[in-house]
Every structure is written in structure tokens, then in C-alpha cells.
Design goal:
- The chain crosses the membrane at residues 7-37, 43-61, 73-90, 96-113, 164-182, 188-210, 217-235.
- With 239 residues, this protein is mainly alpha-helical.
- The chain is built from ten helices and no strands.
- α4 packs parallel to α8, α6 (121-138) packs antiparallel against α7 and α6 (121-138) packs across α8.
- The chain is globular.
- The two termini are 27 Å apart.
Amino acid sequence: MDTVIIFIAIILVASILQTSTGFGFSILATPFLLMIFEAKEAIQINLVLSLIISCSLIYKIRNDIDYSVLKRFVIGSVAGLPVGIIVFLLSDMNKLKFGISIIILMLTFLLIFKVRIRQTKGRDLSAGSLSGMLTTSIGMPGPPLLLYFSGIDSKKEKLRATTLAFYLFIYFFSLLMQIIFAGTNKTIWISSGYALPFVIIGLYFGQLLFVKINQRLFRIFTYIILLFTGCYLLIESLK
């Protein structure tokens, strides 16, 4: 019963966060799902539910999407997806998590101290590539996009809409590659089905929260999530 309550809480909070910010489901849910499920199961449950959230919101947010940036993210991710699945299957995950955690923490502190970067087409492609790699390797596409959008000081509407639209592509193909190369099982799909009502509740409350968050508060949320992600990956890598 305790495990069920924890699972429901994870899904509900992560769904609210994803709906209100455009990111955060995988960042928040994956670490806690790994406490309940095996790595493959946690990653695939995350991919299934994140895909459902993106599908549910895409029509409503379509006018805020930056389609030129989205196109470059998708193109970049095509190179990152196969690299990520190779990393997932062959690499030492602790070393990978350690390296990613250090990079996330360093870049987040630079953002906090207002270090900004200029947006270019090449950097759009690079952010998409890194996101693709992290999706199929550890189930977390958000950090590269979040760091990049924060670095160019993007508006919250553009950030949320463009990342959610990108997730439609990246989550679908990441899930497909996970199933083909790592396999799947009933636990993943049954657990995703049980989680669906709480995802719907999270969608409702997340939409209400998005309206109330101003740009400054949105940026603070961003930094908190990035710091949490970096610290979690660092701690996990040292176990």
C-alpha cells in the first residue's frame, strides 16, 4: 500500500509540473520511479506517461510553438537517439550520471549568476542532439533543453510549447527504441494504465498553475528543478 501511495504521489506531482512548465515529468518522476521499479521499467513508464501528457496539450499550445527551433531540435535529436541507446546498453551508468550531474550543476550556477548565451542554429541542433541522447540513455530529455532555453532567456510560453511539441517526437521514438533493443513487460503497461487517472488530474491543476506563474517565478522553478536533477544524479553516481 505504501508503494502504491508513493507511486500515485510521484505521478500526480510530476504531471502538474510537466503541464505547468513544459518540462519536469522525467526529471522529477524518474529518480523516484527508480526506487520502485527496475531501470528499464522506470524509464519506459516515464516515456509512456510523458507522451500522453504531450499529446493531451499539443492542440491547446500550438500557437506558442517556435516551429523553426522545433525543427532543428528534431533534426539534432536524430543523431542523439541511437547514441543514447548504445550508452544505455553498454556504458557504466554511474560514470555517465556523474558526468551529466557535474555539467548540469555547473551550467545551472552560471545561469543563476545571469550568464547568458546567444541562440544560433548550431546550438539549437546541439541541444536537440543532447536531449535525444539523454532520452534513450537515462530517460531525461529535459535538462539540455531547459538549460538552453534558460540560457537564451526564453519566454515561458515558448519554452513550454516548444519542448512539449518536441517531446511528441522524442518520446515516441525513444520508447520505440527502448522496446526494440531493451524489451518491455506487462508491469510497464499495467502501471502506466493505473497512473493515467492521476495524469489527467495533474493536467487540470497544471494548467491552472501555469496561468498564475509569472516569468520570474517560472525561472526560479527552472533553477530548482535543474539543481534537484544535478544533485540527484550526483548522489546516484556515487552509490
